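Please, structure for the following, as tokens.
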Amino acid sequence: MNLLSTLRRELLRDLSTIEIKINPSLASTTPDQRRKSEPAFPERVLSLQAAEYLKVLASGAEGKVKKRLEELAKLAK
């Protein structure tokens, strides 16, 4: 009843009831099961040509940037 009173007092003076509906089918699977069934992001593939561009960029870079570009280039398929 506290939520209803607060909403009525602060925002919606004419509010008389709040209806809460629960979907029981959401409780039948765990979040881990839902994550496994659908990937968060589609798999992206780095082309060999893109890897070559990264290697060229890496040859002119220094330090951490060079290392990261080379690591990215190794992911090409």
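The CA atoms of residues 30 and 36 lie 10 Å apart. The two ends are 59 Å apart (CA to CA).
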